[in-house]
């Protein structure tokens, strides 16, 4: 692409929605967005259970460690909003006329993607470790599929965010 700067054409170019949706970074961004929804959605919906019928307090099924659930939900929400933000940046990237601003946008995306790769790695290790230490009970077995989904998609999120970086 002649006159291109940081992977995009000249500023002020028209946006073709079909070409935009076919770009690998757009596909990765949407995939990461869906994975973040799966992780925090499955934990919030099914990974808090009652220990017994007499005690109405909800406990995290990851070894009854509230930090495991809270950390994964927090990273999922950060990734969710980060995907939306950078999707909008990607959409308006053609409209950025300053090379310095384009450079900042690319470096911010690179840094954020690398940082989230690390956070997802920590989330995967933390959740897998806590799940390994969890003793199976009736309450835990009800949310076991959601816990496994959260662990699996946190692993897939590592791959997607490393690819985005």
Automatic annotation (TrEMBL):
PROSITE patterns linked: MARVEL (PS51225)
Membrane topology classification: Multi-pass membrane protein
Protein origin, superkingdom: Eukaryota
Annotated ranges, domain MARVEL: 20-165
Pfam families listed in its UniProt record: MARVEL (PF01284)
Alphabetized InterPro entries for the sequence: Marvel, Synaptogyrin
Keywords, alphabetical: Membrane, Transmembrane, Transmembrane helix
GO CC terms, sorted: neuromuscular junction; synaptic vesicle membrane
Coiled coil: none
Parts of the chain that traverse the membrane: 30-51, 71-93, 105-131
UniProt-annotated location(s): Membrane
UniProt record similarity statement: Belongs to the synaptogyrin family.
Designated name of the protein: SNG3 protein
């Amino acid at each position: 692409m002649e006159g291109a700067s940081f992977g995009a054409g000249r500023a002020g170019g028209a946006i073709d929605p079909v070409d935009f949706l076919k770009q690998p970074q757009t596909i990765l961004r949407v995939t990461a967005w869906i994975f973040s929804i799966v992780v925090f959605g499955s934990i919030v919906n099914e990974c808090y259970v009652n220990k017994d019928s007499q005690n109405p307090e909800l406990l995290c099924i990851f070894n009854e460690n509230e930090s495991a659930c809270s950390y994964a939900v927090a990273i999922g929400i950060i990734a969710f909003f980060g995907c939306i933000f950078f999707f909008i940046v990607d959409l308006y990237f053609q409209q950025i006329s300053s090379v310095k601003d384009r450079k900042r946008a690319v470096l911010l995306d690179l840094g954020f993607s690398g940082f989230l790769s690390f956070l997802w790695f920590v989330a995967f290790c933390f959740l897998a470790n806590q799940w390994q230490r969890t003793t199976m009970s009736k309450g835990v077995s009800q949310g076991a599929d959601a816990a496994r989904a959260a662990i699996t998609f946190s692993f897939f999120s590592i791959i997607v965010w490393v690819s985005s970086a």
